[in-house]
Amino acid sequence: GVNHGFEAVRRLEGGVGYLDLRVFAPPEWGADLAEAAMAFLAQSPALIIDLRRNGGGHGDMALLLAAYLFDEPVEMSGTYD
Question: What is the pLDDT of residues 30-40, one digit of tens each?
């Protein structure tokens, strides 16, 4: 099935959280998966977000994920090619 970019969510040795995110899907497609992944990873003492195979996508999903990581809203803009 399609997981809207959420390829793997797990805990590594020492409880370190790991998220393999392959694409930033539109939030209307993947917000429920983002919520589940971040809830699972919430108590991790450290977090690895693996973007090595990420092809990019919608900035709104990046902002949604950032909201779980930062106390204040963050400004993100720009593209990378």
Answer: 999 999 999 99
Distance CA 77, CA 25 (A): 16
In sign, the C-alpha dihedral spanning 33, 80, 49, 22 is positive
pLDDT-above-70 percentage for the chain: 93
Residues 2-30: tens digit of each pLDDT = 799 999 999 999 999 999 999 999 999 99
| Helix 59-69 and helix 27-41, axial crossing angle in degrees, nearest 10 | 20
What distance in Å separates the CA atoms of residue 27 and residue 76, rounded to the nearest whole number?
16
| Residues paired with 9 in a beta bridge | 19
Give 51: exposed, middle or buried? Use CB within 10 Å, 0-12, 13-18, 19+. middle
